[in-house]
Specification:
There is one protein chain. With 156 residues, this protein is mostly helical. The chain has one domain. It has 6 helices and 2 strands. It has a two-stranded antiparallel sheet. A hairpin with a 5-residue loop joins strand 1 and strand 2. The longest helix is centred in the middle third of the chain and has 27 residues. The radius of gyration is 18 Å and the shape is globular. Keywords: Membrane, Transmembrane, Transmembrane helix.
């Protein structure tokens, strides 16, 4: 229903591509200076795979949320983006290992502890992020299949 419209497919692809670029840059796999270079060391394969899954899932979930927002009879304040927001924020946070220096300089000892926690627990945090994104996909899918909430275009 959602992805029968090419605009939502393009939106999902653009969001997934944007997230992929951001996460690959945060993981220090994609470099833009002096030239664009992508480098995948053998020890980063698992994180790279999980980042790809997160980027694709985030694109799908956000595109579906936009569809629900545009076609819903409910008001915006009904917690429409709760699951996808949690998944997207946690996926971005799991990929922020390169911001350790910023955390340390900004927050001192607490920043060092947060940076250490994020870098040590990066794979479990990414798995939790994927779980949250899949939960939000399930939530949005349920919202789409309930005909009492959505307008079908013929009953206006």
């Amino acid at each position: 229903m959602v992805f029968s419209n090419k605009a939502y497919v393009a939106l999902a692809a653009a969001i997934a591509g944007s997230f992929w670029i951001v996460l690959a840059t945060f993981d220090q796999l994609l470099f833009f200076s002096p030239v664009v270079v992508f480098y995948l060391p053998s020890d980063a394969t698992i994180n790279f795979t999980l980042s790809n899954i997160m980027a694709g899932t985030a694109g799908i979930v956000v595109s579906m949320n936009v569809y629900v927002l545009r076609h819903s009879r409910l008001k915006l304040g009904t917690s429409l983006f709760s699951g996808s927001t949690a998944g997207v924020v946690s996926s971005a946070c799991a990929g922020c290992s390169s911001f350790g220096f910023l955390l340390v300089t900004t927050f001192g000892g607490a920043g060092a502890a947060a940076s250490t926690f994020l870098s040590v627990h990066q794979i479990p945090l990414r798995l939790i992020s994927i779980g949250l994104l899949l939960w939000s996909y399930y939530s949005v899918h349920n919202r789409l299949t309930k005909s009492c909430i959505m307008t079908d275009g013929h009953n206006r």
